[in-house]
Write a structure and sequence with these properties.
Blueprint lengths: L7 E3 L2 E2 H19 L6 H10 L7 H7 L11 H11 L5 H9 L14 H5 L3 H23 L4 H8 L2 H13 L4 H23 L13 H17 L7 H19 L7 E5 L6 H19 L7 E5 L2 H16 L11 E4 L12 H9 L5 E5 H9 L4 H4 L9 E5 L9 H14 L3 E6 L9 E2 L4 H7 L3 E12 H14 L5 E4 L3 H14 L4 E4 L5 H12 L6 E4 L13 E5 L3 H8 L11 E9 L13 H11 L4 E3 L3 H15 L3 H10 L4 H7 L10 E7 L2 H11 L6 H11 L3 E5 L9 E3 L4 E5 L3 E2 L3 E2 L8
Helix pairs in contact: 1-2, 1-10, 2-10, 4-5, 5-10, 7-8, 12-13, 18-26, 20-21, 24-25, 26-27
């Protein structure tokens, strides 16, 4: 069949070429997943119909720059054509997907609005009949099945048909599977639409890296560590790591990956969780390929904080680079979070941005926020375009205890369906035992490993409350008596941490390092690396940011009261390698000037109460007993856990109220009424960008985004009530505030007239 090809989708491309190309990419991508073959037709029709509305002379003139009236709009007309073409079971989802392929899908029953119904498409219908009917009929002839484009034009001319769509949306009820199907096909369309213009073909991940990469890296790492520190050879925990690793591989060998897809790695801190998690992911992904060489699973490694992502990514890079001479590019690995510059090997500008945000890589290292937004920011065009990457992927959630408990129920329900219907493999990694969902434990005899360790002892002094001044004196006395020991002091608030830092610094000649959210991220990472890479015995004062994934090793740890899982994480910074005498963790309960416990400002009361109950009669807790404490803690938490937030979100799925759903899912609570971001103009890099922004230098969209991503490395959040006390400047054009070095201390953070509790 020959086509006249007068109609264009873009200035330099015909409509037919674009539609066929988009459909080809989407179908190929879907078929590579080897899931849900019943929806092939659904995907094809959505892709072929998504730009039907461009088949008017109004849109063709718009491409030439000669028309800008409403009649050029193609989204709604294309959506209605999609609805008309699809079988009943997919009509409504197809309508939503196509209507908003250039925007965000909002609430379903609002997407066929009153204005849409009133406008009867008279000019577009007349135009198609008179000018473009023949070519459109040629394009769609293979899909019409004895129907005609004229039939659609007659159908759309009847206002009652348009009104009926809205009524149907109101009556229909949806479930999680419906929502995920909508996001999956939406993602395929968005990816196909962009990829057809950028790559001209589908992106397919390469074969996964072999497990031998990690085994080789692990062997070299052990050799290097033991050479530099002979005491490690006698460390129980160091030898335990090998046993845990072997046990995990033995367990994986027994698992039927066609049936089992939900796993957990629950091991003590310091026993190599990152290596274990990557090993499990490499093993599973290679096993999938052995079963079907056409499937190329991606690995998505997620962690709670950007600072930990950087650390994780460097490990991953070392694993790969130590095993291959090939240049590592974004096709291989992507580090994806809010601070990472937008770049993708082989592409520039918008094209690079799309490849980067579409997760076109074998392995993605990212945050919980980015991963869970991909699932739960439903209908958000800029995020959901990568949703289909979850199919067949191996997803790691490391330090999973950092996820807010109120989302456990909905995350559990979504994950179970993703694993069943989209062949996702989930690995939960933790040193504690949060009960998010039922999993197969990859460390079969984990209790033995928890009880085998004797690295630390927790001394519990939290039965009685003490003031911050009393706490300061206790800590200082201990420091003076133990000049040869390193100390970590973890407080719950910025104010209390600063007070303790200043007091210790003023009363000792030893080097004291301060860490908090008021230390901008770039400097914070430098300080952490300094602590990690030196044998010097530092005194470190920090807020709770030090808990998760920060690999430092201290002799004595002090901790203001917190939920048990946070106490465990802090305890994991003491004597991590089990060398020499036992590390000591001392737990206190500090009250502020008003008599309120400082922990109450940070943590939910029910978690604190549960922890108090468990620790009430325990003066000393041996490391071997922490396992039992964890079991009791999470059992009690589960019973007291409220599912109200999850249930509220689940109800919104009934009517596909996607905008409401994504707005209510916030892993990071919205602090806009309590906190404000300030950029610290700390060095030549930040100074150069601030000057460019202040002077009105013009940037294209991607350049500007990257400038702001770099500045996030210098950004801290402070209470709004503190703003009058800070000498800040503002770049009004971008609505950003910054302070110069004269108003900032690299030792303790932002300088102000006085401090507040937050």
């Amino acid at each position: 069949m020959s086509y006249s090809c007068k109609l264009k989708s873009h200035p330099h491309q015909t409509l037919y070429t674009h539609l066929v190309g988009v459909a080809d990419i989407a179908i190929k991508t879907h078929k590579s997943h080897k899931i849900n073959h019943d929806i092939d037709y659904f995907i094809e029709i959505v892709c072929m119909c998504h730009d039907f509305g461009k088949g008017t002379t109004y849109f063709q003139k718009y491409l030439e720059g000669n028309y800008d009236g409403r009649e050029k709009d193609h989204g709604l007309l294309s959506a209605l054509f999609t609805y008309w073409m699809l079988p009943k079971k997919w009509k409504h989802l197809g309508f939503l997907i196509v209507k908003k392929h250039h925007g965000d899908i909002d609430n379903a029953n609002e997407e066929c609005s009153k204005d849409d119904v009133i406008w009867k498409f008279k000019k577009q219908i007349k135009d198609i009949r008179e000018n473009t009917l023949a070519e459109l009929s040629q394009i769609y002839e293979p899909y019409l099945n004895d129907k005609k484009i004229e039939d659609f034009l007659d159908w759309i001319s009847q206002e009652s048909n348009l009104k009926s769509i809205k009524k149907e949306f109101r009556k229909k009820k949806y479930n999680i599977s419906d929502l995920l199907l909508c996001m999956y096909v939406y993602s395929l369309l968005l990816t196909g639409d962009k990829s057809q213009l950028i790559r001209g073909c589908a992106y397919m991940p390469d074969i996964p890296y072999p497990l031998e990469y990690i085994q080789n890296y692990k062997a070299n790492l052990i050799k290097d560590l033991t050479t530099n520190n002979e005491k490690l050879n006698k460390s129980d925990v160091f030898n335990l790591r090998n046993n845990i690793y072997d046990d995990m591989l033995n367990k994986l060998n027994k698992i039927d990956l066609n049936k089992d897809k939900l796993f957990s790695i629950n091991v003590p801190t310091g026993t190599g969780k990152t290596i274990l998690a990557y090993s499990a992911a490499f093993y599973i992904s290679n096993k999938i390929v052995q079963q079907d060489e056409n499937i190329k699973p991606q690995i998505i490694y997620s962690l709670p904080f950007t600072s930990v992502i950087d650390q994780n990514y460097e490990v991953l890079k070392d694993i790969v680079s130590s095993n291959t001479k090939d240049k590592i590019t974004s096709d291989d690995l992507i580090k994806f979070h809010s601070v990472t510059p937008i770049e993708y090997y082989g592409f520039e500008g918008y094209d690079a941005r799309f490849c980067f945000e579409n997760w076109q890589s074998k392995i993605i290292s990212t945050t919980f926020v980015q991963l869970l937004n991909t699932i739960f920011k439903t209908g958000k065009n800029s995020i959901v375009n990568r949703f289909h990457r979850l199919a067949n992927s191996v997803i790691i959630l490391d330090e999973v205890q950092a996820i807010d408990e109120k989302y456990y129920k909905i995350i559990s329900e979504f994950i179970q369906i993703l694993s069943k219907e989209y062949n996702c493999y989930i690995i939960l990694v933790t040193a504690t035992m949060p009960i998010i969902l039922n999993t197969i434990d990859l460390i079969e005899d984990k209790e033995r490993y928890f009880r085998a360790l004797n690295r630390i002892v927790i001394e519990n002094y939290s039965q009685n409350e003490i003031t911050l001044d009393e706490f300061k004196d206790i800590v200082l006395d201990d420091i003076c008596e133990n000049n040869d020991k390193s100390f970590l002091i973890v407080l719950n608030t910025v104010r209390s941490s600063k007070e303790v830092y200043k007091y210790i610094k003023e009363n000792t000649k030893r080097e004291v390092i301060y860490l908090s959210t008021e230390i901008y991220p770039k400097l914070r990472l430098e300080k952490i690396n300094k602590i990690k890479n030196s044998n010097k015995k530092y005194i470190v004062v920090s807020t709770q940011l030090i808990e998760a994934g920060v690999d430092i090793d201290m002799d004595i740890v002090y901790r203001d009261f917190a939920p048990l899982d946070s106490i465990n994480q802090t305890a994991g910074r003491a004597n991590r390698n089990g060398i020499g005498v036992r590390g000591i963790v001392k737990l206190y309960k500090i009250v502020g000037e008003n008599g309120s416990r400082l922990c109450n400002y940070i943590y939910p009361r029910y978690l604190l109460n549960t922890t108090e109950e468990i620790l009430e009669d325990k003066q000393v807790i041996e490391e071997k007993d922490i396992y039992d404490c964890n079991l009791e803690y999470f059992s009690k938490v589960k019973k007291r856990l409220s599912n109200d937030k999850s249930d509220e979100l689940l109800k919104l799925i009934d009517k596909l109220e996607l905008k409401k759903f994504r707005n209510k899912f916030e892993l990071i609570e919205n602090d806009e009424f309590r906190k404000e971001d300030i950029i610290i103009n700390a060095d030549e890099i930040s100074d150069s960008i601030i000057n460019e922004l202040s002077n009105g230098t013009d940037f294209d969209n991607i350049e500007l985004k990257n400038k702001f991503r770099i500045l996030r490395q210098y950004t801290v959040s402070i209470p709004i009530v503190d703003m009058p006390k800070i000498n800040n400047q503002e770049i009004q054009r971008y609505k950003i505030k910054y302070i110069d070095k004269t108003n900032y201390s690299e030792d303790e953070g932002i300088l102000r007239q006085s401090q507040v509790i937050w």
